[in-house]
Amino acid sequence: MKDPGHYEQLSVHFDDLDPMGVLHNSRYAALVERAIHAHWLRLGWAPDAAVSAFPDVLVAVREVRATFHRPITGVCAPVVHFWIERMGRTSCVHGYRILSPDRSAVHAEGHRAIVNLDPGTGRPVPFSDGLRVAEGLSPQVAGSATP
Q1: How many angstroms separate the CA atoms of 105 and 35, rounded?
Q2: Dist. CA 50–CA 3, nearest whole Å
Q3: Contact 11, 74 (CB under 8 A)
Q4: Neighbour tally for 58: CB within 10 Å
Q5: Would you tell me how many other CB atoms lie within 10 Å of the CB of residue 40?
Q6: CA-CA-CA-CA dihedral for 65, 67, 70, 73, to nearest 10
Q7: From 104's CA, which of 20, 55, 98, 116 has a CA 20 to 30 Å away?
Q8: Is the per-residue pLDDT at 147 higher than 60?
Q9: Helical H segments across the chain, by residue range
Q10: pLDDT digits (tens, 9 = 90+) for 15-70
Q11: Pairwise CA distance, residues 92 & 89, whole Å
């Protein structure tokens, strides 16, 4: 893991739980999405190009993978630990772990891949150097073969 990552404490609400009082499996991906979104907002990103610090305003999730280790039960405040595993020209893969509130147990882990899209065409476009630098990465080198 190159990037030590970021930690976001989030809330599991009663309506996130299934009839057995366990966090529904689809809600784990939502926790990861909310954690990354909160981080990007702090960097200055916004989905509206008029107010975003970066031109990268349309990203689409390409893949989400999860391995579940231990269920989250009841209303609580788990911690999402996430980091950048790879950032190519037009795509980015975040690794993640969903931890207990005290960070002593791993409930789930996996990765989430996104693609940066041109809002006008819907086609993949390179991530901006500004976003790369804000994430602590080097700007994209012109002509680089990075995927």
Answers
A1: 18
A2: 30
A3: no
A4: 15
A5: 20
A6: 20
A7: 20
A8: no
A9: 25-43, 129-134
A10: 999 999 999 999 999 999 999 999 999 999 998 989 999 999 999 999 999 999 99
A11: 8
Do 84 and 146 touch, CB atoms closer than 8 A?
no
- Tokens matching residue 46: 């916004």
**10 pLDDT more than 80:** yes
User: How far apart (Å, rounded) are the C-alpha atoms in residues 110 and 98?
Assistant: 9
Given pLDDT bands bounded at 50, 70 and 90, which one contains residue 137? confident
Token pair, residue 53, equals: 């610090």
Give the residue among 75, 105, 94 at the shortest CA–CA distance from 135.
Answer: 94
Q: Which residues of 19-31 are buried (b: 16+ CB within 10 A; e: fewer)?
A: eeeebeeebbbeb
